[in-house]
Amino acid sequence: MRNYLLIILFSAVTSAANAQFVAADSLKNDSTALYEAKESIGKRLNEKITNSYFKTKYDTNYVVRPKEKWLLRLLGNYAGNYIHAKGTVNDVYSKYDLHTRRNTSVSLEVNYCDLAVALSLNPDKIKGIYDDYELNLEYHNNMISLDFNYLRATSLTGDIKLGNIDHLDEDGLRMNVVNASAYYIFNHRKFSYPAALYQNYYQRRSAGSWLAGLSVQTGSIKTTDELKERSPMAPEVHLKFANVALGGGYGYNLVLGQRSQWLLHLSAIPSVVVYKHNRLTVNNDEKKDHGLNFNMIFNERAAVVYHFSPRYLGGASIMMSNSIFDNGNITVNQNKWIARAFFGVRL
Predict the structure, then answer these.
(1) How far apart are CA 281 and CA 203, in angstroms?
(2) Does the CA dihedral 108-113-114-115 come out positive or negative?
(3) What's the burial of 193, exposed, middle or buried (CB within 10 Å: 0-12/13-18/19+)?
(4) How confident is the model at residue 17 (pLDDT cuts 50, 70, 90)?
(5) Which H/E stretch holds residue 83?
(6) Which of 126, 139, 190, 334 is the most buried (most CB within 10 A)?
(7) Which residues share a beta bridge with 300?
(8) What is the pTM of this model?
(9) Residue of 250, 240, 247 lying closest to 191 (CA atoms)
């Protein structure tokens, strides 16, 4: 009987051990299969991104892709916004010549096959002396270019004629503004817009192109409770504007140097407003502007890029958006700009 019990116990232990070995092998195989599946998906995705990056949709005598897929850029950014507005509503006249606090930041951008992420640092934000918020989104290829900017600011200061106020300190007005634009590049096989501003293409020869553009500007400016506390006699003012414009312009890339190391870019797109909805309210009295007056939006770009070698580059750029809206009673002029200096390394 004892021998039978030993045999049964030995068989049970052996079966359990074999089951553990089988389970361990199965777990190892599942883990290996999962890793290989993830690696395969990552490999296919990388191949798709790489193939799209090097896909030739341009004249390689004029435009080429850098052979390096990685681009690291260190950028210094300096941005500002000016607002000039005036209007008369029921014999109440107001005028603004204001600007926001300058936005200075340093960014590190990592670009892989046109997929880019950036980390920005604003020293004034860290110190707690900059409360405005700004968001920039961009997409650019040789055929289409998109820009989006949102600014929320209470740092507007400057000269103002508003009741008994002749100068405005910060926190007196709250501004929310959206600037968006889209461009189509007709000669996209020879002219590279991103080669000048983002360096993910390389312009080998000088070329230009006609451009078609769509621009949208919308936002509002209104007095704050802080202003009413400081100046109880100040009227309550609320300016709203929304404008859509269509237009066309021209851009040119000038390439200089024996190795095409210099690139100078200049482009401008004037647009005519085809839809507008502007409204100025002073102490609940409203003046609207929905007419067909001749109003315009301008978008300008300029850049200089120098290639120290195929891997190292540096330069500067400036992007501006200006608007002029005037119907005789209400005039609004907005100027938004951002200047950049950069140094890049291709890997």
Answers:
(1) 50
(2) negative
(3) buried
(4) very low
(5) strand 70-89
(6) 334
(7) 268, 320
(8) 0.80
(9) 250
Q: How far is CA 180 from the centre of its chain?
A: 9
Question: Which 3 state secondary structure label does DSSP give 329?
Answer: coil
267 token code pair: 């482009």
Q: What is the pLDDT of residues 305-332, one digit of tens each?
A: 999 998 999 999 999 998 887 777 778 7
More confident: 230 or 206: 206
Sequence-ordered list of residues with C-beta below 8 angstroms from that of 248, at least 6 positions apart, any chain = 210, 211, 212, 213, 269, 270
- Cβ pair 152, 135 in contact under 8 A: no
Residue type, 167: H
Q: Mean of the pLDDT values across residues 55-62? A: 87
Look up residue 74 and give its amino acid. Answer: L
Side chain identity at residue 193, one-letter code: Y
The residue type found at 319 is M
Amino acid at 322: N
